[in-house]
TrEMBL record, chains A, C:
GO terms for biological process: tricarboxylic acid cycle. InterPro entries: Cit_synth/succinyl-CoA_lig_AS, Citrt_syn/SCS-alpha_CS, CoA-bd, CoA_lig_alpha, NAD(P)-bd_dom_sf, SUCC_ACL_C, Succinyl-CoA_synth-like. The keyword Metal-binding does not apply. It comes from Acidiplasma aeolicum. Residues 8-103 form the CoA-binding domain. NCBIfam families: PRK05678.1 (NF004230), sucCoAalpha (TIGR01019). GO terms for cellular component: succinate-CoA ligase complex (ADP-forming). This is Succinate--CoA ligase [ADP-forming] subunit alpha. Belongs to the succinate/malate CoA ligase alpha subunit family. GO terms for molecular function: nucleotide binding; succinate-CoA ligase (ADP-forming) activity; succinate-CoA ligase (GDP-forming) activity.
UniProtKB/TrEMBL annotation, chains B, D:
Keywords: ATP-binding, Ligase, Magnesium, Metal-binding, Nucleotide-binding. Gene3D superfamilies: ATP-grasp fold, A domain, ATP-grasp fold, B domain, Succinyl-CoA synthetase domains. It holds the Pfam family Ligase_CoA. It comes from the Archaea. GO terms for biological process: succinyl-CoA metabolic process; tricarboxylic acid cycle. Its cofactor is Mg(2+). This is Succinyl-CoA synthetase subunit beta. Residues 9-214 form the ATP-grasp domain. It comes from Acidiplasma aeolicum.
C-alpha cells in the first residue's frame, strides 16, 4: 500500500497554534487534538513556558522550528493577524489558517500577496478551517458531525457548512475533505483552487460547493467544472433573498458587470451541469 | 463605512488631491459671504442626487439661501438632507472617471479610469475603461499613471498633474484602509487644472479600530442597526414580519432564503455569531422585539454556540420581555436534545429539521 | 540539429530599450542592433511616436506588449530606475538589464526582491550587460572586442572586463558568454548564479571569474566551483592594493568576519582549484 | 556618507528613538548651564575614540569647560575634533548592541542584536548575536522584535520598549536610505528605560539627490576629494607618487594593483568614468596635478571613452597646465592607433600593452 495523498493535510502534518493560550486557541486546539491533529506546539508571546492541552507554549514561531512545524492555525484577534501571518510565512510554514473575522482587508491583501510569493497556502480569514476525517482538522468545525467518506465540500460559510456536513453524514454519506474558504471579500484559497484539488483527489467521488452572493469566484469555479470535472457536483447558493448589498460605487458595478448575484451564480452552476439545491437539506438527495 | 462627499473630499485635501474651494453647512445661518456662482450639493449617500434635484446652483447669497432653504431637511431618494456642500463653480472642460477599489478576483487594489467621466459611467463600455491591477506589496509606481494618461490621451501638464494625483490617491487608499476611492467626475477645468469634482469613499469597517475618526452612526443604517454596531451580533432590518435569529452569516442568509422561497417575509437578519452565552441570546431577542415582528423564528445549528445555551436564552428572554408572539425554534447540533427538552419544559415547540420548522411558520402565517 | 540553448539570450530574444531616446539609449541600442540583437521597440515617456535607429518609440512598456518583448534594457538615469524596472516586471518581462550607476541601494533591494518573486532575472545595476557573441548583446560592451568561442566570463567590473575580453580574443580564444554583474553592493545576478549557468552551458569550455574586494560572493562561487565544476576556471581579483575601505560600523565586521578582502577571495579561489592571475593580461596564458 | 554621532542621534530623535538629553558645541563659549554630570564626547568618525581619550566626563560647568578646552581642536586617531556632544550622564544598568545594515548576500536589510553591547562587540562570538533578515517588500513587523527580545532575554516593559524602538529604527533605516543604523551601546538605564547611547549612521551616497540635507563635505575625505565630489570622475588620494588616471573602477583598481605588485606607489585613484570628452580628461589632470605626483600614468581602455579623445585631452592638459612631469600612457581599444599617433606627434610615448607601460614606469622610477 503506497502513501495516500490527501488534500493539504494528513494526521502527520505538524501543526502549531499561534495564540494557543487564548480562549479560542485553547478550546479549539483541544478539539483538534481529539480529532487526531498532530499539534506540536503553541505560540503565545509573553505567555510561553507552560502547556495547554499538554502541548508546550513557545514565545515565537522561530522557537518552534526544531519541531519542524508545517502548518499554523492563527487563533489571534484580528488586529494581530497580519503580524502573526508574516511571522509564520517568514519562518517557512507552508499552510496558514486564519480564524479571525474582521481582519482589515488591506492586511489580508498583503498576507495573501506575500503567501503567493513564498508558495504558502492561506485558508481564511473568517473561515472555519479544513477537516479531513480520519486524518486531521485545522480549524473550528465541530468534530462529531463528520464521518470519513467520499464527499468533498467547499463553502464560504461557517455554521451553514456544519449544517450541510451533518445533513450529508446523516444521509449515510461521509466526507473526504471539507474546507471553509472564509466569508471575507478577499481570502487565500478560493473555489477555483479547491475544486482543482478535489478533482484530483483520489478519495473524493462527489463534490459540494456552497457559495454565496458577491464576487465571481463561483462563476469561475463553474467554468472550471464545466471543462474539467467529471465527478458529480452539487451546488447551493445563499443570498437569493438578499436586498442588493452596499454597492462599491460605480467601480463595483464596472467590475462585476452583472456577476455576483445569486441568479448569476445559480445560472453559472446550472450551465456547468452542477445540480443546484434550493435548501441546504436537499443537498444529500442530489448526491444520488 | 460609506463617507459623504464632503468627508471624502476632506481626505482628498489631507493627501494633497485638489478639490474645489467650498464649505459645509447644516443650517441656513451658517451661510457666509463667498465668491459666486456656487454649486449647492446635498450630502446624501445616493448615486443619482443630481437627477433627483439634490444639486442646485446659486449666483448670489440670496440665491444660495433660497436653494439651501429648499434642500435642507428634505428627503431625496429616500434620504434626508442634513448637510449641504457649497462649492465654488468650476468651468468644466472635460470630465474623466478615476477610481481605486478592492478587486476580489485579483486580491488587490484595482485602478480604473475612463475619458468618459460624469454621470453615466456604468453604461460606458469596457473598451473605454482602463483597468490596472496594483500589487499590494509592490504598491504604486509612476509608470502606472503613464499607462493611464496614455489611455486617457493626456499629455504635458495634464499628464504630470494626473500622475501626481494618482500617486496621492493610492497613498490615501492604502493609509485610510479604503475599499473604494472614486472620483467621478474628475474635472479638467478651463485653465487645465485637474480637480476632484466629487468623492465616493468607503472605509473598511474592519479597520475602524485604527481609524477611530470614522466611527459614527452609519447614515445608511436604521437607528436599530446603528445601535447594534456595539453588539457582537450582526443585525439588519428588512420589511417583512418574521423576526429571525440564527447563528452564522451563511445559515442566517440560508434561513432568509428558505423563508422567502416559502413566501414568508423576514423582518430582519440577525446572526448571533460564534459566542456561547444566554445573555447574547436575550440581547438579540430584545433587538428583534423592538422591530415588532409577527412571529419569531430561531434557527440554530449548535457548534461553539451550544443548543442548550440558546434554549436557556430563549426561555429567559420570553419571560424577561414578556414576549407574546409565537416563537418557532429549530435546534440542531451540539446539545440539541437538552436544548429541545428545556424549551418543551417551557411550552415552546422545537424542531430538529429546518424544513419542518418552516412548514410550521407557513401554517402560523395563515398558510400559502 | 536541435535548438542550442544559450545563456539567457539568443539572437531571437525580443528586446526593448527603456529610455531609448536618451543619449546612452540611442547610442547603445544602435550598437546592439549592429551586434545582432533583436531590438523590437523603444520606450520613452513623453517622446513616443518617432523612431530611433529605425525602431519605433512607445510611450509605455504596456504599449509594446503586442510585440511580445522578453527582455528590457534600462537606459534611464538612476532616479528613474526603480519605476522603469517595476514597469518592466509588472508587464511580464523576464530579463531586465540595468545600466545606470548610483542607483539608491534601497531601490535596488526592492527591484531584486520583486524580481525574485516574479521569476525575473536582473543584471546590474551599474553593469555593462551581457554579450553572447554570434547571438546578441544587451548592454554597452564594445562590439569589436568579441569573437565567438568557448570562454565564458563573469565580472563585477566594466572597462576591466573589456580589457580582459580583448586579451582573451587577441590570444586566439573566443567567448561563449560574457556577463558584467555590476559594481554595486547589491546586484541581481551574482557569481553563484552565473557560474551555475556557465557550468551547464554546452558552449562553454573554460570560465573566467573577475572579482573584486567587498562582499563574499566570490567565496560562495568558489565553494560551488570546488564541489561542482569540472571545466577549467581562471580567476582574477582587483583591490589587492586597496586601503581598507569605509567600514560599515561594527555591523560590517560582524557580517564579514574576515571575508571580503582580496586575500580571502584569492585564497578561496586557490582552495577551489581556480588558477589566479596576478595581472589581467596573464589571464589568457592561464586558459591553457 | 558617514554621519557624526550627534547627527545620527538627531535622526533617531526625529523618528522617536530615545537618546540622552544633550547639545552640541563647536566653541567653548557655546557651553551653557546644564544639569551635571555630563559626558563630553568628541565628534569624530572613529570607532575607538573612548580608548583614545576622546570622551571625558564633567561634574560641573568648570569641569566641562576644562574638558572642552582639552578636546576642541585636538587631533584624535588622526581626526580633528571640531565639535563636542555634551550629554547628561545615564546610569547604565546594561549595554546591548543593535543594528540594521545592508546585507549583500541576502540582498536586503539585516537586523543584528546582542546582549553583549559596548565597546568590544566585534569580539563577541556569533552565538551571542541574533541576525534576522528583513525582506524589503514585507518590511518590518512586530514578530521580529519578539524574536530579538527573546534572544536578549527581555520581557515586560523592556520588551515592549525594544519592540517600538526596532520598528522606529527600521522606519528610519528605510526612509533615510541608510546603509547602516547602529546603536552601540543600546543602554538600559537604572529606571529600565532603553536609550540609544551612541549612533553610527551611514546614508547611501547614491540616494543623496533625495536627501539633500546630507550633502556636505565628507569629514573622512581630503579637501581635494571633497572638491571632486561635484565632478563626474571618482578621485581618491593615496600616499604614493604615481599619479593615476584610468577609466572604469575595475581597471583603475587593477592599475593600482599592478603598480603595487611592481613596488610602485600610487598617489591617487582616478576613474574617468564612462564619458567621452577632452574637458574631463583636462579636469582630471588638473586634480592629479594638485596632488603633485612624481610621474603621471594614464591607463585607458577605449570603449565609450575613446582613445583618441583621451589623447587629445592629455595633450591639451599638458600644454594648458604646463605639466613638467613625465606622462606614461597606455592606450587600448576604440581608436587606439589614432590616439597613439596624436600623442606621438606631441612627444608623448604611448603603449598598447599595460605591462610594457608599467615596465617603463619602473624604469623611470629608478628601477626596482
Amino acid at each position: 500500500m503506497g502513501v495516500i495523498k490527501m488534500v493539504l493535510i494528513t494526521k502527520n502534518t505538524r501543526v502549531i497554534v499561534q495564540g494557543m493560550t487564548g480562549h479560542q486557541g485553547a478550546f479549539h486546539s483541544g478539539e483538534m487534538i481529539k480529532f487526531g491533529t498532530n499539534v506540536v506546539a503553541g505560540v503565545s508571546p509573553g505567555k510561553s513556558g507552560g502547556t495547554v492541552n499538554g502541548i508546550k507554549i513557545y514565545e515565537t514561531v522561530m522557537d518552534t522550528l526544531e519541531l519542524m512545524p508545517e502548518a499554523s492555525m492563527l487563533a489571534v484577534p484580528a488586529p494581530f493577524v497580519r503580524d502573526a501571518a508574516f511571522e509564520a510565512i517568514d519562518n517557512g510554514l507552508k499552510l496558514i489558517y486564519i480564524l479571525a473575522e474582521h481582519v482589515p482587508v488591506h492586511d489580508t491583501m498583503e498576507i495573501v500577496a506575500e503567501a503567493n510569493r513564498k508558495g504558502v497556502t492561506v485558508i481564511g480569514p473568517n473561515s472555519p478551517g479544513i477537516t479531513v476525517p480520519g486524518e486531521a482538522k485545522i480549524g473550528i468545525m465541530p468534530n462529531h458531525i463528520f464521518r470519513k467518506g467520499d464527499v468533498a465540500i467547499a463553502s464560504r460559510s461557517g455554521t451553514l457548512t456544519y449544517e450541510i456536513v451533518k445533513a450529508v453524514t446523516d444521509a449515510g454519506f461521509g466526507e473526504s475533505t471539507v474546507i471553509g474558504l472564509g466569508g471575507d471579500p478577499i481570502v487565500g484559497l478560493t473555489f477555483l483552487d479547491v475544486i482543482k484539488m478535489y478533482n484530483e483527489d483520489k478519495n473524493t467521488k462527489r463534490i459540494v460547493l456552497v457559495g454565496e452572493i458577491g464576487g465571481s469566484e463561483e462563476e469561475r469555479a463553474a467554468r472550471y467544472v464545466k471543462e474539467n470535472v467529471k465527478k458529480p457536483v452539487v451546488g447551493y447558493i445563499t443570498g437569493r433573498s438578499a436586498p442588493p448589498g452596499k454597492r462599491m460605487g460605480h467601480a463595483g458595478a464596472i467590475i462585476e458587470r452583472g456577476t455576483g448575484t445569486a441568479e448569476s451564480k445559480i445560472k453559472a452552476f446550472m450551465d456547468a451541469g452542477i445540480n443546484v439545491a434550493d435548501y441546504p437539506d436537499d443537498i444529500p438527495k442530489l448526491l444520488k | 463605512m460609506n463617507l459623504y462627499e464632503y468627508m471624502g473630499k476632506e481626505i482628498f485635501k489631507k493627501y494633497g488631491i485638489p478639490v474645489p474651494d467650498g464649505y459645509v453647512v447644516s443650517d441656513i445661518n451658517e451661510i457666509r459671504p463667498y465668491q459666486y456662482p456656487v454649486a449647492v450639493k446635498s450630502q446624501i449617500l445616493s448615486g443619482k442626487r443630481g437627477k433627483s434635484g439634490g444639486i442646485k446652483f446659486a449666483k448670489s447669497q440670496e440665491d444660495l439661501k433660497e436653494a439651501a432653504k429648499t434642500l435642507l431637511g428634505t428627503t431625496i431618494n429616500g434620504l434626508k438632507v442634513n448637510k449641504l456642500l457649497i462649492e465654488r463653480m468650476i468651468n468644466i472642460k472635460k470630465e474623466l472617471y478615476l477610481s481605486i477599489t478592492l478587486d476580489r478576483s485579483s486580491k488587490g487594489p484595482l485602478l480604473m479610469a475612463s475619458p468618459d467621466g460624469g454621470m453615466d459611467i456604468e453604461s460606458v463600455p469596457d473598451s473605454r475603461i482602463i483597468k490596472i491591477k496594483i500589487d499590494p506589496l509592490m504598491g504604486y509606481s509612476d509608470y502606472i499613471s503613464r499607462e493611464v494618461s496614455e489611455f486617457l490621451g493626456l499629455s504635458g501638464s495634464l499628464k504630470s498633474q494626473l500622475g501626481t494625483l494618482i500617486g496621492l490617491l493610492y497613498n490615501a487608499f492604502k493609509k485610510e484602509d479604503s475599499l473604494l476611492m472614486e472620483i467621478n467626475p474628475l474635472i479638467i477645468d478651463s485653465s487645465d487644472n485637474i480637480i476632484a469634482g466629487d468623492s465616493k469613499v468607503i472605509i473598511d469597517d474592519s479597520s475602524l479600530y485604527r481609524h477611530k475618526q470614522y466611527i459614527f452612526p452609519d447614515p445608511e443604517k436604521t437607528e436599530l442597526e446603528n445601535e447594534s454596531a456595539s453588539k457582537s451580533f450582526t443585525f439588519i432590518e428588512m420589511d417583512g414580519d418574521i423576526g429571525v435569529i440564527a447563528n452564522g452569516a451563511g445559515l442566517t442568509m440560508a434561513t432568509l432564503d428558505a423563508l422567502t422561497l416559502h413566501k414568508l417575509r423576514p423582518r430582519n437578519f440577525l446572526d448571533l455569531g460564534g459566542t456561547d452565552s444566554t445573555d447574547i441570546v436575550e440581547d438579540a431577542f430584545s433587538f428583534v422585539l423592538r422591530a415588532d415582528p409577527k412571529i419569531f423564528f430561531v434557527n440554530i445549528f449548535g457548534g461553539v454556540t451550544k443548543a442548550d445555551t440558546v434554549a436557556n436564552g430563549i426561555v429567559a428572554a420570553k419571560n424577561k420581555f414578556n414576549i407574546k408572539q409565537k416563537i418557532v425554534v429549530r435546534l440542531s447540533g451540539v446539545h440539541e436534545d437538552e436544548g429541545r427538552r428545556i424549551l418543551m419544559d417551557n411550552g415552546i415547540d422545537a424542531y430538529s429539521n429546518m424544513n419542518d420548522a418552516i412548514n410550521e411558520l407557513v401554517k402560523l402565517n395563515g398558510g400559502n
